[in-house]
Amino acid sequence: MRMLITEATSTDIAALEPTVAVLPVGSFEQHGGVLPLATDTIVACLIAERIATDHGLFLLPPITVSCSHEHAGFPGTVSMSARTLTAVITDIRASLDASGIAKLVIVNGHGGNYALSNLVQEANVAEARVTLFPGRAEWERAREDAGLSTTISEDMHAGELETSLLLHAAPALVSPDRATADHLATERPHLLVTGMRGYTESGVIGRPSLGSAAKGRALLDSLAKSFADQLRLLI
Question: 59, 61, 159, 184: which has the highest count of C-beta atoms within 10 A?
Protein backbone atom coordinates (compact mmCIF):
# COMPACT_ATOMS: atom_id res chain seq x y z
CA MET A 1 0.00 0.00 0.00
CA ARG A 2 1.18 3.53 -0.72
CA MET A 3 2.36 5.74 2.11
CA LEU A 4 -0.41 7.79 3.71
CA ILE A 5 1.93 10.77 4.03
CA THR A 6 4.16 12.50 1.53
CA GLU A 7 7.79 11.47 1.29
CA ALA A 8 8.87 14.80 -0.26
CA THR A 9 11.79 16.75 1.19
CA SER A 10 12.04 20.50 1.63
CA THR A 11 14.37 20.54 -1.37
CA ASP A 12 11.73 18.76 -3.44
CA ILE A 13 9.14 21.39 -2.61
CA ALA A 14 11.55 24.24 -3.30
CA ALA A 15 12.17 22.82 -6.77
CA LEU A 16 8.44 22.35 -7.35
CA GLU A 17 7.68 26.02 -6.55
CA PRO A 18 4.00 25.23 -5.91
CA THR A 19 1.26 27.81 -5.68
CA VAL A 20 -1.47 25.30 -4.75
CA ALA A 21 -1.46 22.84 -1.86
CA VAL A 22 -3.58 19.70 -1.48
CA LEU A 23 -4.88 18.69 1.95
CA PRO A 24 -6.46 15.24 2.39
CA VAL A 25 -9.12 15.18 5.12
CA GLY A 26 -10.17 11.73 6.26
CA SER A 27 -11.67 10.34 9.43
CA PHE A 28 -11.21 7.58 11.97
CA GLU A 29 -14.54 5.81 12.15
CA GLN A 30 -16.15 2.41 11.98
CA HIS A 31 -16.66 0.74 8.63
CA GLY A 32 -18.22 -2.39 10.06
CA GLY A 33 -16.04 -5.48 9.92
CA VAL A 34 -15.42 -4.97 6.21
CA LEU A 35 -13.00 -2.03 6.03
CA PRO A 36 -10.54 -0.42 8.48
CA LEU A 37 -11.22 2.58 10.71
CA ALA A 38 -8.85 4.64 8.55
CA THR A 39 -10.81 4.02 5.32
CA ASP A 40 -11.83 7.62 4.71
CA THR A 41 -8.27 8.82 5.28
CA ILE A 42 -6.93 6.22 2.85
CA VAL A 43 -9.50 7.28 0.24
CA ALA A 44 -8.67 10.98 0.68
CA CYS A 45 -4.95 10.26 0.41
CA LEU A 46 -5.39 8.20 -2.76
CA ILE A 47 -7.23 11.02 -4.47
CA ALA A 48 -4.95 13.75 -3.13
CA GLU A 49 -1.78 11.93 -4.15
CA ARG A 50 -3.09 11.33 -7.65
CA ILE A 51 -4.14 14.93 -8.34
CA ALA A 52 -1.01 16.38 -6.72
CA THR A 53 1.18 14.14 -8.88
CA ASP A 54 -0.78 14.86 -12.06
CA HIS A 55 -0.66 18.64 -11.62
CA GLY A 56 2.55 19.34 -9.66
CA LEU A 57 0.81 20.47 -6.48
CA PHE A 58 2.12 20.54 -2.90
CA LEU A 59 0.80 17.41 -1.17
CA LEU A 60 0.21 17.82 2.56
CA PRO A 61 -0.13 15.03 5.13
CA PRO A 62 -3.71 14.05 5.98
CA ILE A 63 -6.00 15.13 8.76
CA THR A 64 -6.90 11.71 10.13
CA VAL A 65 -9.64 12.53 12.65
CA SER A 66 -12.66 14.65 11.77
CA CYS A 67 -16.43 14.93 12.38
CA SER A 68 -17.69 11.36 12.74
CA HIS A 69 -20.36 11.91 15.37
CA GLU A 70 -22.94 9.95 13.41
CA HIS A 71 -20.81 6.87 14.09
CA ALA A 72 -20.68 7.36 17.86
CA GLY A 73 -21.25 4.14 19.76
CA PHE A 74 -19.44 1.95 17.25
CA PRO A 75 -16.11 0.74 18.66
CA GLY A 76 -13.03 2.58 17.47
CA THR A 77 -14.69 5.75 16.20
CA VAL A 78 -12.95 8.97 17.27
CA SER A 79 -14.22 12.47 16.41
CA MET A 80 -13.35 16.12 16.74
CA SER A 81 -15.82 19.00 16.75
CA ALA A 82 -16.66 20.93 13.60
CA ARG A 83 -15.18 24.06 15.16
CA THR A 84 -11.89 22.26 15.85
CA LEU A 85 -11.68 20.91 12.31
CA THR A 86 -12.37 24.38 10.96
CA ALA A 87 -9.72 25.88 13.24
CA VAL A 88 -7.10 23.33 12.22
CA ILE A 89 -7.64 23.99 8.52
CA THR A 90 -7.69 27.75 9.11
CA ASP A 91 -4.29 27.48 10.82
CA ILE A 92 -2.93 25.35 7.99
CA ARG A 93 -4.10 27.92 5.46
CA ALA A 94 -2.41 30.72 7.42
CA SER A 95 0.86 28.80 7.51
CA LEU A 96 0.71 28.08 3.79
CA ASP A 97 -0.08 31.70 3.03
CA ALA A 98 2.94 32.83 5.03
CA SER A 99 5.12 30.65 2.80
CA GLY A 100 3.62 32.05 -0.40
CA ILE A 101 1.06 29.34 -1.13
CA ALA A 102 -2.32 31.07 -1.19
CA LYS A 103 -4.46 28.39 -2.82
CA LEU A 104 -5.69 25.16 -1.20
CA VAL A 105 -7.51 22.06 -2.43
CA ILE A 106 -9.28 20.19 0.36
CA VAL A 107 -9.80 16.55 -0.61
CA ASN A 108 -12.58 15.29 1.64
CA GLY A 109 -12.92 11.55 2.19
CA HIS A 110 -15.73 11.70 4.76
CA GLY A 111 -19.28 12.73 3.89
CA GLY A 112 -20.04 13.83 7.44
CA ASN A 113 -17.65 16.79 7.28
CA TYR A 114 -20.43 19.27 6.54
CA ALA A 115 -18.44 22.12 8.08
CA LEU A 116 -15.99 22.06 5.17
CA SER A 117 -18.58 23.49 2.79
CA ASN A 118 -19.06 26.58 4.95
CA LEU A 119 -15.31 26.99 5.40
CA VAL A 120 -14.74 26.94 1.65
CA GLN A 121 -17.59 29.35 0.92
CA GLU A 122 -16.23 31.87 3.42
CA ALA A 123 -12.69 31.53 2.06
CA ASN A 124 -13.82 32.44 -1.44
CA VAL A 125 -15.78 35.64 -0.75
CA ALA A 126 -13.09 37.96 -2.13
CA GLU A 127 -11.47 35.61 -4.66
CA ALA A 128 -11.16 31.91 -5.44
CA ARG A 129 -8.66 30.55 -2.93
CA VAL A 130 -9.98 27.19 -1.72
CA THR A 131 -11.83 24.34 -3.39
CA LEU A 132 -13.48 21.22 -1.97
CA PHE A 133 -13.06 18.02 -3.96
CA PRO A 134 -14.66 15.67 -4.90
CA GLY A 135 -18.18 17.11 -4.92
CA ARG A 136 -21.37 15.17 -5.53
CA ALA A 137 -21.19 15.75 -9.29
CA GLU A 138 -17.64 14.36 -9.48
CA TRP A 139 -18.60 11.32 -7.39
CA GLU A 140 -21.66 10.66 -9.56
CA ARG A 141 -19.57 10.93 -12.74
CA ALA A 142 -16.97 8.59 -11.28
CA ARG A 143 -19.64 6.04 -10.36
CA GLU A 144 -20.95 6.11 -13.90
CA ASP A 145 -17.49 5.88 -15.46
CA ALA A 146 -16.57 2.94 -13.21
CA GLY A 147 -19.80 1.07 -13.82
CA LEU A 148 -20.94 0.92 -10.21
CA SER A 149 -24.26 -0.79 -9.65
CA THR A 150 -25.33 1.23 -6.61
CA THR A 151 -26.35 4.87 -6.27
CA ILE A 152 -24.91 7.42 -3.84
CA SER A 153 -27.96 7.07 -1.64
CA GLU A 154 -27.81 3.27 -1.56
CA ASP A 155 -24.04 3.18 -1.14
CA MET A 156 -23.59 5.43 1.87
CA HIS A 157 -20.94 3.70 3.95
CA ALA A 158 -18.50 0.79 3.61
CA GLY A 159 -20.21 -0.20 0.39
CA GLU A 160 -19.35 -0.76 -3.25
CA LEU A 161 -17.40 2.47 -3.79
CA GLU A 162 -15.15 2.47 -0.72
CA THR A 163 -14.56 -1.27 -0.99
CA SER A 164 -13.54 -0.89 -4.64
CA LEU A 165 -11.05 1.88 -3.89
CA LEU A 166 -9.40 -0.16 -1.16
CA LEU A 167 -9.38 -3.32 -3.28
CA HIS A 168 -7.49 -1.29 -5.86
CA ALA A 169 -5.01 0.36 -3.48
CA ALA A 170 -4.82 -1.83 -0.37
CA PRO A 171 -6.59 -5.16 -0.92
CA ALA A 172 -5.09 -6.71 2.22
CA LEU A 173 -7.18 -4.29 4.29
CA VAL A 174 -10.50 -5.56 2.92
CA SER A 175 -12.15 -8.37 4.87
CA PRO A 176 -13.36 -11.44 2.97
CA ASP A 177 -16.54 -11.07 5.01
CA ARG A 178 -17.56 -8.34 2.56
CA ALA A 179 -19.23 -11.04 0.47
CA THR A 180 -22.02 -11.37 3.04
CA ALA A 181 -21.97 -7.88 4.59
CA ASP A 182 -24.44 -6.05 2.34
CA HIS A 183 -27.05 -3.95 4.13
CA LEU A 184 -29.41 -1.45 2.52
CA ALA A 185 -31.10 1.50 4.24
CA THR A 186 -31.69 3.89 1.37
CA GLU A 187 -34.09 6.16 3.27
CA ARG A 188 -32.45 7.76 6.34
CA PRO A 189 -34.69 10.71 7.25
CA HIS A 190 -33.53 11.01 10.86
CA LEU A 191 -29.81 10.34 10.46
CA LEU A 192 -28.81 13.61 12.14
CA VAL A 193 -30.79 12.59 15.22
CA THR A 194 -30.24 8.84 15.44
CA GLY A 195 -26.86 8.51 13.77
CA MET A 196 -25.91 5.35 11.94
CA ARG A 197 -27.26 3.24 14.80
CA GLY A 198 -30.76 4.13 13.67
CA TYR A 199 -30.27 2.40 10.32
CA THR A 200 -27.65 -0.32 10.67
CA GLU A 201 -26.43 -2.73 13.34
CA SER A 202 -23.33 -3.77 11.43
CA GLY A 203 -22.20 -0.25 10.52
CA VAL A 204 -22.51 -0.96 6.79
CA ILE A 205 -25.01 0.80 4.52
CA GLY A 206 -24.30 -0.36 1.00
CA ARG A 207 -23.16 -3.40 -0.95
CA PRO A 208 -19.47 -4.15 -0.36
CA SER A 209 -19.97 -7.49 -2.10
CA LEU A 210 -20.06 -5.63 -5.44
CA GLY A 211 -16.67 -3.99 -4.99
CA SER A 212 -13.73 -4.76 -7.29
CA ALA A 213 -10.22 -3.51 -7.87
CA ALA A 214 -11.06 -2.64 -11.47
CA LYS A 215 -13.90 -0.40 -10.32
CA GLY A 216 -11.58 1.24 -7.81
CA ARG A 217 -9.01 2.03 -10.46
CA ALA A 218 -11.69 3.44 -12.76
CA LEU A 219 -13.11 5.57 -9.94
CA LEU A 220 -9.71 7.11 -9.28
CA ASP A 221 -9.05 7.72 -12.98
CA SER A 222 -12.41 9.47 -13.37
CA LEU A 223 -11.87 11.71 -10.34
CA ALA A 224 -8.40 12.65 -11.58
CA LYS A 225 -9.91 13.71 -14.90
CA SER A 226 -12.71 15.69 -13.24
CA PHE A 227 -10.30 17.61 -11.04
CA ALA A 228 -8.98 19.68 -13.93
CA ASP A 229 -12.14 21.81 -13.89
CA GLN A 230 -11.73 22.52 -10.16
CA LEU A 231 -8.09 23.49 -10.57
CA ARG A 232 -8.89 25.97 -13.33
CA LEU A 233 -11.01 27.92 -10.85
CA LEU A 234 -7.97 28.46 -8.61
CA ILE A 235 -5.15 29.26 -11.03
Answer: 159
- Smallest CA-to-CA distance from 51 within 143, 116, 142, 161 is with 142
Give the tens place of pLDDT for each residue, 102-138.
Answer: 999 999 999 999 999 999 999 999 999 999 999 999 9
* Amino acid 4: pLDDT: 76
- Taking the C-alpha atoms of residue 109 and residue 111, their distance in angstroms, rounded to an integer, is 7
Averaged pLDDT, 212-224: 98
**Maximum alpha-carbon separation in the chain:** 51
Pairing outcome for strands 130-133 and 58-59 = unpaired
Q: Which residues pair with 31 in a beta bridge?
A: 33
State the DSSP H helix or E strand holding residue 20, giving kind and residue range, or none if neither.
strand 20-25
Answering whether pTM is above 0.85, one says yes
CATH of 10-227, one of 3.40.640.10, 3.40.50.10310, 3.30.450.20, 1.10.3470.10: 3.40.50.10310
Answer yes or no: are the C-beta atoms of 174 and 164 closer than 8 Å. no
From residue 210, alpha-carbon distances to 86, 113, 155, 182 in Å are 35, 26, 11, 9
